[in-house]
Design a protein that fits this description.
Structural class: alpha+beta
Order of helices and strands: HHHHHHHHEEEEHEHEEEEEEEHHHH
Shape: globular
Helix content: 40-55%
Strand content: 15-25%
Radius of gyration: 25 Å
Number of strands: 12
Distance between the termini: 33 Å
Largest sheet: 12 strands, mixed
Number of helices: 14
Length: about 400
Amino acid sequence: MSLFNQKISLKDIIREIPDIELSRLLRESNIDYCTKVLTGKLMFYLLLYGMLRIDRLSQRGLADAFASPMFKLIFNTQGKKNISHSSISERLSVIDLDFFKMSYEVIYQRLSSLYSAPEIEKMLLQRVDSTLVAAAGNKLMKGMTCGNEHKKKKMIKYTMNFNGMFASFCQVHTQEAYANESLALPENILGHFKQEKHHSSVYVFDRGQASGERFTDFKQEDGLLFVGRLADNRKLEFVQEMVSENNNFKYGTLTKDQKVRIYGLKKAINSKGNPSKKQFLLDEHFRVIRFMPSKGDKEILLITNIFHLSAETIATMYKQRWDIEVFFRFLKQELNFSHFLSLNENGIQVIMYMTLITAMLVMIYKKENQIGYKTAVRRMGIELENLVMAIVVIQSGGDITKVNLPYP
């Protein structure tokens, strides 16, 4: 029985990590080349442990965790040398990124398979958005600039797809061009769509993706369905009224449901001979739904290539986009994703994949036990301590004074 009399325990979840598959990935990768202490597997579990147990995760905190009796008992590292924070920093900068990326994909497939068909149906809505993390100083090797001319900081952009339970696709952006969501979001959408075996997801996103050409790209991909939001002043050309059965629905009142054409931008030369951009009408037809939300005084415009579903269903899909904002807040507040554990691009991506793996474990624990994010992380940490006590009791035969705890 779980420590908290709940449906699933931390031990149950850890058992779901496919250790055989991780071992295979370790063998096939070059991750342990010239490494004696911080092997790939040990680094994997050190980062996982740190994300669950350390409130303000840092390289020094990980070094202390590695030397702790709890970590040594759980992961059987007695006899291994202690490590410094600089060793962790160096290891993160050169460790094989593919191992962590493939580990994330293997664990994602394994944990997704635990759910029934009706539950999986609910996860086919892909909420797509980006979040930014800025470095405190100018030590970040690569990144976009933010702030005014006198207080510029570098930042990294993470663009993710979230299916309601797990992050299903993610990319790190450091180039200035990706500050434009009309570049970042479509790249994520098309990347996920092309790797999916069954094209059944609907991609939902906010006003950041405003490019008419990208909307056309989506429609030209056979089977790619999307629901996005348009700016209030977007220029459109009316084609046809759509038939709506119900103008009053759960989230507001429908004002218009139309088939339209939208405008794109192309490069041109103005009258003074300078380069500019000129609007032109795109050939593709889209559906634009306008509705007044029940809580709010501003009309919302949605654009989609889904014509067979009701306006209310489309609006309901868009409302679920907010789930990814909650997910980002969870990553930053509970899993230390609001600052950089590594300032090296390789290390940043390793931490991203490990954060998303940890998030998957927490999300299952949270869902199955019907508790909040913060409670889930706290209880998982307590269960780690309980696991150590159980090991101590077994080793001592019931007399813990006989146990030689491996203090550094």
